[in-house]
Amino acid sequence: MSSTKECWTRNLQIGWNLAKESRKQANYMKCVFCGKLFTRRGKRKLNGKFGSCCSVVCKNLNLRGKIVRKVVKRGQQLVCKICGSGIYAYPSHPRKYCSIKCRTNDDTFPKYGESHYKWKGGIKYHRGRDRSLRKWMRAIIKRDGRNCLICKKTQGEMCIDHILPWADFPTLRYNLINGQTLCKSCHAKKTKRENKNRDRKGRLKNGYKKRIWNRYQKSGMV
């Protein structure tokens, strides 16, 4: 009885070993790069591209020089306006010169003075150096004192504000009726409200401009 049991277990063990060896032989593969035999495990069984090498080092060495990146040329070949050398430029950033030296040698390029595209007639205005504006601010402070006309605050930093904005109503810039004293927080709220009603070029929208002008007229300041 014991001999038959031992024979059965021996045959079973032999069968298991044979199945194990057959599975190993099925997973054995020769490395494409170094020629070493290795067993494929896990994802390398399914992935034939990267599972054909025994290690990551062999995989990288095998792929080196085989991957060719496709370079998509989106620009265009242009010619320099001065020296005639080739320029590779993109459509979004067209170029006329190959270098700064060629650009400065071009007589038609606006450089400075009257030939510059931002020339305003040679008038240099600085708002902080305007004597009439400073005189206007002193008159507003003398009239209102340190009293905010909106929240009636008397302490803290005060700002001299134009009721109708400086940039949009140039004729009323130095008019004493167009000035008021505000605290810092009230002045920030008023400026924020004005900036919300401006277009992309920084000008007040027509609806808001008419609204504040009508309010200014109704208050009896004009």
Tell me what the structure shows:
- This protein is an alpha+beta fold and about 220 residues long.
- The strands form 3 sheets. Strands 1-2 form a two-stranded antiparallel sheet.
- The N and C termini lie far apart (about 125 Å).
- The protein is elongated, with a radius of gyration of 42 Å.
- The protein has 3 domains: about 60 residues, no CATH class; about 30 residues, no CATH class; about 90 residues, no CATH class.
- It is built from 6 helices and 6 strands.
Which terms would index this structure?
two-stranded antiparallel sheet; alpha+beta; 6 helices; two-stranded antiparallel ribbon; 3 domains; 6 strands; 222 residues
Structure summarized in a few sentences:
This protein is an alpha+beta fold and 222 residues long. It has helices spanning 2-27, 56-63, 100-105, 131-144, 184-196, 206-218, and strands at 28-30, 37-39, 76-79, 86-89, 158-162, 179-183. The strands form three sheets. Strands 1-2 form a two-stranded antiparallel ribbon.
